[in-house]
Amino acid sequence: MLDTGNTAFMILSASLVMLMTPGLAFFYGGLVGRKNVLAIMMQSFVSMGVTTVLWVLVGYSMCFSGSFGHGDFGGVIGNFNNAFLHGIDPMTMFTGDGKIPLMVFIVYQMMFAIITPALITGAFTNRVNFKAYLIFLCLWLLCVYFPMVHMVWGGGILQQWGVLDFAGGIVVHAIAGFAALASVFYVGKRRAPDHGPHSIPLVALGTGLLWFGWYGFNAGSELKVDGVTGLAFLNTDTAASFAAIAWLIMAWAFEHKPKFLGLLTGAVAGLATITPCAGFVTLPSAVIIGTLSGVVCYGAVALKNKLHWDDALDVWGVHGVGGVLGTICLGVFASKLVNPAGGADGLLAGGGSFLLKELSAVAGASIYAFGFTWVVLKVINLVTPVVVREEDEATGLDESLHGEVAYV
Question: In the chain, fewer beta carbons within 10 Å around the N or the C end?
Answer without folding.
Answer: C
